[in-house]
Specification:
heterodimer; A: 859 residues; alpha+beta; twelve-stranded mixed sheet; six-stranded mixed barrel; B: 121 residues; 4 helices; 49% helix
Chain lengths: 859, 121
C-alpha cells in the first residue's frame, strides 16, 4: 500500500509543527521527529504484510460466503417449492439407492478380487472329455501327480477335495467340514499359516499322514489358540497331530472348512487314472501361461497314449478361478447392471423434466439475472448448487435405502450364490454413489443452463413486464421414460414367469414333508459294519411316530453327483473308438425311492437284495431311453467297470433331478447299499418322510439316529423342500429385483408423464381458452390431452419393445421354458404402459375441461 | 524517547489496541492525533512509537474493528482518518472491562496491608 508513505509523511510534518510550536528550531524539530520515527521501510514492510494477508483472507472468505449464500438460497428455494423438491429428492433417493445397492452386489461378487495374493494368477485345472460335454471334471490322482511332475519348477499346482471328518474324543463328537489337500495347495494359494507350518511333501505318504492343519476358528473353539502346533486331536477316532493353523480369512475350498488333512494315498490309488475326483488349482503368471498350457496338453496326450483305457478321450484345460467363482451368477449380474443403467437413465430424464418445469417458472428470474450481468458461470453455479442440494438430501436418503436393499439381498441370496456374504456398502459402492450423484448433478445442471442460454433472447417485454415465450414442454423425456419402463417391465415379466415355471417343474420326486440328514462313517469302516449300522438306523427311524417311509442314498436330489462311472451294457460290444458309456452311480437302501416320492416301474429294492442275493440294479428313464429304447429294460443286464459284476435291472425310476432344477438328468444307475463294492463310500444321506411338517419330528428323528451310535455325528439336517427352495433362490432373487426395479421405474415414468402433461396444459391454457370462447366443446379438448399422453407413451412403448427384442439374447440365458420374445409378455407390458398413460392423463384432462375462458382471457 | 524529560512507560503488548480504540471512540482521528491524545492523557508518561502504531492501525482495520478513509486535516492537508466500526466499539467495551478488572486486581495486591499466611509445618 503506497498510501502508508503519505500517511507517515503527514505524521512527521504534524509532529515537526508541534515541536516547533514548543519552541524548537525547524532543524532540531525535524531531526528529532525523524529520529523518533525510526526506520520508515520497516514500518512500511510490516504494514504491507498485514494488508496482504488480510486481503487474501477476505477474498477467500468472500468466495465461501458466495457459496454459502448460494447454498442458503438453494435450500430456501427448495423449501419454498415442495412440489418440485420433494419429488426430486425422492427420485434421487430411489435412483441412487437402487443403483448403489445393485452396484454393491456387482462389486461384491464380480469386481472384488479374490482374497488371495495375486488372485488373478489362480486357475482351476479341469479334465475335459473330448467326446462328451463333460469339460469341468475333476482330475484323477494319477493324472494330477503326472502333471505335477511335468510342471515342476515353473507352475505350482495343488489338489484338494472336500472331506468331512468327525471330531471325536471330545464330550460331543461333531462333524467338521474338512478337506484333503496335497502338500503344495497352500503354497499355490500363497496363504501363510498364522501358527506352525503347512504340509511337507513326505506327509503325502500314508505312514506320515497323521497330521492336520486346523482353522483359527476351530483352534479357538478347542482352546488351542497360540499353542496348537504339536497338540493332538482325534479325527474319526484316530489321534492326529496338529501342525499348523490357518487364518480365519482363509476359506478354501469352502468358507466353513475347519480342518485340512494331507492327501495320503495307497500307491495303487495314487497311480489310478480311472476315477476323477481330485480338484486341482494352479498358479500361473500371465507370462508363462502359454508355455504351461502347452506342457499340460503334451502331458495329457502322453497319458492318453499310455493309458488308453482310462485316458483316451481326456485332456485338460485351465479356467481362471475368478471366472469359475462367478460363472454361475454372471448372466444375472449382466441383467442387473443393465438394470442399474436403466434406473440411472430414468432418474436423469425424470429430474431433467422436473428441472425444466421449474426452469420454466423461473425463466424470467434467471433471464433477468443474466440481463443484469450475471455471467453464465454465475447462473450455472447457482443451479448447480441447487442440484447439489438435491443430491445431498436425496443421496443421503438413497444411501439409507441402499443399506436396506443390500440387507434384503443378503437375506434373499441363496447360500449357493458365491460370495454373497461379501456384498456390503463398503468404500467402492460408496464412491460409486458419489460418482453417480456427481454425474447426475452435472447433467441436470448443464443441460438446463445451456437450454436457458439458448433461449436467452426469448425474453420478451410485455405489458406485464417480463414474460416467457410459451413454448411447449419437450416430449422426448416422456418417450424415453416410457421406453425404459417398457423394457424393464418386459424383463420383469419374463423373469417372473420363468420363476413360476421353474417352481412348477416336475423334479421326479415329491419334496414336501421329507427331512434329510447326512451320516458319514469313519474312513475304513468295513462294508458289513456300514450295512449293519445303516439298517439299524433305518429300522429305528421307521418306528418313530409319524414317519411313513425311510431310506438312505449316497446322494440326495439336487445335491449333485458324487460318482460318474463307466458302465457296460450286456449284449452291446463297444469299439475302442466309441465314446465311453458312463452313468451317474448312486447307492441306495430299500425304502429310499418311496421316501423321496420317486415312482418306480418294476420293483424297488427290498431287504432281500443283500450281498449273497443276485446282483440287481435300478436305472432311470434316461438310461433306459438311451440304451433300451425298444425293449423292456426290466430283466436286462449291465455292470459298472468298478465291480465287474453283471446286474439285472429290476426297476426303472423316473428321472430324479440331481444336477439342478433345469439340468436334464443324465443316465443313472442305482445299486443296493448291501451290494455295493465301494467300501470307501462310507457316507449316506437319510431321507425320512413324515405325515405333516417334518421339522416337528426332527428331534425325535435325531434321537433315533443317536440311539444307534452316540458317537456318530450327523450333519446337513434340513428338509428336502429347502434344497428345492435353495435352487430356486437365484431365479426368485432375479425376478424379485427385476420386478422391484420395473415397478419403481413405472412409477417414475408416470410421475414424469404427469408433470409433462400439466406443463402442457398450463402452456396451452391461453390457446384452449380462446378455443372455448369460440365455442369448442370442453370434452373434446380434454380428450386431446388424453390422446396426447397415449400417443407419447405408445411411441415410447414401441421403442422399449424394440430394445427388448434386440436385447433378447442377453436375458434368454436367465429364462426357463419361456421365449425371450414371448408375445403375451410384450403385449402385456405395452398394455400396462398405455393404461398408466390414460390414468395419469385423467387429472390434467379434467383441468382442461374446467378451464374458465373468461378468467384466463381477462388476465 | 528516553531523552524526554520525564521517564516514559513502555506500552505492554496488547495494550496498544485498546488504547487506540479508546482514542477513536470520540470520533474519527488520524494517526498522529491518536499518539498525541494518548501522550496528553497519560501526562506524557506513555509515548507511542510510530513503528508500533501504524501496524496496529492496519491490523485493527484488517479485523474490521476500525475503518480508514482519506480526508482533510484541520490545517487542510490530506490525511487518513480512522473511525471505530460497531464491531470495534463492541471490542473496546469488552477489552476495557477486562482491563479494569485486571488493574483493580493488581492494585489490590500491590496495596495489600498484610502478607500471605505463614505455612504451618
Amino acid at each position: 500500500m503506497d498510501n502508508i508513505d503519505d500517511e507517515l509523511q503527514f505524521h512527521l510534518d504534524e509532529k515537526i509543527r508541534d515541536l516547533m510550536s514548543q519552541g524548537l528550531s525547524r532543524e532540531a524539530a525535524t531531526a528529532r521527529a525523524e529520529r523518533e520515527l525510526g526506520d520508515r521501510s520497516a514500518i512500511r514492510q510490516s504494514v504491507r504484510t498485514i494488508v496482504d494477508t488480510s486481503g487474501r483472507q477476505r477474498e477467500r472468505q468472500r468466495y465461501w460466503m458466495g457459496w454459502r449464500e448460494d447454498v442458503r438460497y438453494a435450500v430456501r428455494g427448495l423449501i419454498r417449492s415442495p412440489q418440485f423438491s420433494i419429488p426430486s429428492i425422492a427420485i434421487f433417493a430411489l435412483g441412487v439407492g437402487l443403483a448403489t445397492a445393485v452396484f454393491a452386489v456387482l462389486h461384491g461378487i464380480v469386481l472384488n478380487p479374490l482374497p488371495y495374493p495375486l488372485g488373478a494368477e489362480l486357475h482351476q485345472l479341469y479334465a475335459t472329455n473330448l467326446k462328451t460335454t463333460d469339460d469341468r471334471s475333476a482330475m484323477s490322482p494319477g493324472d494330477f501327480f503326472a502333471l505335477r511332475t511335468a510342471l515342476a519348477g515353473d507352475v505350482r499346482i495343488g489338489g484338494y477335495m472336500n472331506w468331512p471328518v468327525s471330531l471325536t474324543g471330545v464330550a460331543e463328537p461333531e462333524r467338521l467340514n474338512g478337506a484333503l489337500a496335497t502338500a503344495d495347495l497352500f503354497t499355490t494359494l500363497q496363504v501363510e499359516p498364522i501358527e506352525g507350518r503347512t504340509f511337507l511333501i513326505d506327509e503325502e505318504q500314508l505312514e506320515r499322514g497323521d497330521v492336520a492343519i486346523i482353522s483359527a476358528r476351530l483352534a479357538a473353539r478347542l482352546g488351542l489358540s497360540g499353542r496348537a502346533p504339536g497338540s493332538t486331536i482325534q479325527l474319526n477316532g484316530r489321534p492326529i497331530t496338529v501342525v499348523g493353523v490357518m487364518p480365519g480369512t482363509f476359506a478354501f475350498p469352502e468358507a466353513a472348512t475347519d480342518v485340512w488333512i494331507p492327501l495320503a494315498l495307497r500307491p495303487a490309488d495314487r497311480d489310478s487314472h480311472e476315477s476323477r475326483w481330485l480338484q486341482t488349482i494352479a498358479r500361473i503368471t500371465p507370462r508363462e501361461a502359454a508355455a504351461a498350457d502347452a506342457r499340460i496338453q503334451v502331458t495329457m496326450a502322453g497319458l492318453a497314449a499310455a493309458f488308453p483305457q482310462s485316458n483316451a478321450d481326456w485332456r485338460a484345460r485351465l479356467v481362471p478361478l475368478h471366472r469359475v467363482v462367478v460363472a454361475q451368477a454372471r448372466p444375472t449380474l449382466i441383467v442387473l447392471s443393465l438394470a442399474i443403467a436403466c434406473v440411472l437413465l430414468v432418474m436423469i430424464v425424470n429430474l431433467l423434466t422436473a428441472v425444466a418445469a421449474r426452469q420454466r417458472q423461473r425463466t424470467a428470474e434467471l433471464s433477468l439475472q443474466t440481463a443484469l450481468g450475471a455471467g453464465l458461470w454465475r447462473v450455472t453455479r447457482q443451479l448447480g448448487t441447487e442440484a447439489l442440494m438435491l443430491a445431498f438430501f436425496g443421496g443421503g436418503i438413497g444411501l439409507l435405502f441402499a443399506t436396506g436393499l443390500v440387507g434384503a439381498f443378503r437375506r434373499l441370496a441363496p447360500a449357493s450364490l458365491p460370495r454373497a456374504a461379501e456384498v456390503s456398502l463398503s468404500m467402492w459402492p460408496f464412491l460409486f454413489a458419489i460418482a453417480a450423484g456427481a454425474i447426475v448433478v452435472s447433467i441436470v445442471t448443464i443441460i438446463p443452463v445451456r437450454a436457458a442460454h439458448r433461449r436467452g433472447g426469448a425474453i420478451r417485454l410485455t405489458g406485464r413486464g417480463l414474460a416467457v415465450g410459451s413454448s411447449q414442454p419437450s416430449r422426448w423425456p416422456v418417450v424415453a421414460q416410457a421406453a425404459l419402463a417398457c423394457l424393464l417391465i418386459v424383463s420383469a415379466g419374463l423373469l417372473s414367469q420363468a420363476f413360476v415355471r421353474l417352481s412348477n417343474i416336475d423334479l421326479g420326486f415329491v419334496p414336501g414333508n421329507v427331512l434329510t440328514l447326512k451320516i458319514s462313517l469313519p474312513r475304513g469302516t468295513p462294508s458289513e459294519r456300514q450295512t449293519a449300522y445303516f439298517s439299524d438306523v433305518l429300522e429305528r427311524l421307521r418306528s418313530v411316530t409319524a414317519v411313513t417311509a425311510v431310506g438312505a442314498a449316497s446322494d440326495l436330489p439336487l445335491a449333485g453327483n458324487s460318482l460318474n462311472v463307466p458302465i457296460a451294457i450286456d449284449g452291446v460290444v463297444r469299439d475302442r473308438s466309441d465314446p465311453e458309456v458312463r452313468a451317474a452311480f448312486r447307492v441306495i437302501t430299500p425304502g429310499y425311492l418311496e421316501a423321496i416320492g420317486a415312482a418306480v416301474r418294476g420293483r424297488a429294492f427290498e431287504p432281500p437284495d443283500g450281498p449273497a442275493a443276485e446282483p440287481v440294479a435300478i436305472v432311470n428313464d434316461a438310461l433306459a431311453r438311451q440304451h433300451w429304447p425298444d425293449v423292456n429294460p426290466i430283466g436286462q443286464r449291465l455292470r459298472t467297470n468298478e465291480d465287474q459284476q453283471w446286474r439285472t435291472v429290476v426297476g426303472v425310476v423316473r428321472d430324479v433331478h440331481h444336477g439342478g432344477l433345469t439340468e436334464s438328468e443324465g443316465p443313472t444307475i442305482y445299486v443296493p447299499h448291501a451290494q455295493k463294492a465301494e467300501e470307501w463310500m462310507t457316507w449316506m444321506s437319510v431321507a425320512v418322510r413324515t405325515a405333516g411338517d417334518p421339522l416337528r419330528h426332527a428331534t425325535a428323528i435325531r434321537a433315533a439316529v443317536a440311539e444307534a451310535d452316540h458317537n456318530q455325528p450327523v450333519s446337513d439336517v434340513m428338509t428336502l423342500q429347502r434344497r428345492v427352495d435353495e435352487a430356486l433362490a437365484l431365479p426368485r432373487l432375479a425376478a424379485f429385483i427385476a420386478t422391484t426395479v420395473a415397478g419403481i421405474t413405472l412409477l417414475l415414468a408416470a410421475a414424469g408423464l404427469a408433470s409433462t402433461l400439466s406443463l402442457f396444459v398450463s402452456a396451452r391454457t391461453p390457446e384452449f381458452s380462446v378455443r372455448l370462447a369460440l365455442g369448442a366443446v370442453p370434452a373434446r379438448l380434454a380428450w386431446r390431452t388424453v390422446s396426447e399422453a397415449v400417443r407419447l407413451v405408445a411411441a415410447g412403448s414401441a421403442l422399449g419393445l424394440a430394445i427388448a427384442a434386440a436385447a433378447g439374447s442377453v436375458i434368454a440365458s436367465l429364462l426357463y421354458d419361456i421365449s425371450a420374445y414371448d408375445f403375451a409378455t410384450f403385449a402385456g407390458a405395452a398394455a400396462i404402459l398405455l393404461l398408466t398413460a390414460v390414468v395419469t392423463a385423467i387429472a390434467p384432462a379434467r383441468a382442461v375441461a374446467r378451464i374458465d375462458p373468461s378468467l384466463t382471457l381477462r388476465s | 524517547m528516553a531523552q524526554d524529560t520525564k521517564p516514559t512507560l513502555d506500552v505492554l503488548r496488547g495494550t496498544l489496541d485498546v488504547l487506540v480504540l479508546k482514542a477513536l471512540s470520540w470520533g474519527p482521528q488520524h494517526g498522529y492525533a491518536v499518539t498525541r491524545w494518548i501522550h496528553d492523557q497519560t501526562d506524557a508518561a506513555m509515548l507511542i512509537e510510530e513503528g508500533a502504531l501504524y501496524p496496529a492501525l492496519y491490523r485493527l482495520e484488517a479485523q474490521e474493528l476500525i475503518e480508514g478513509t482519506w480526508g482533510t486535516s484541520a490545517n487542510n492537508r490530506r490525511a487518513r482518518f480512522y473511525k471505530l466500526t460497531p464491531a470495534g466499539r463492541k471490542r473496546l467495551r469488552a477489552d476495557a472491562d477486562t482491563w479494569d478488572r485486571y488493574a483493580t486486581a493488581v492494585g489490590r495486591v500491590l496495596g495489600a496491608a498484610s502478607g500471605p499466611e505463614p505455612v504451618k509445618r
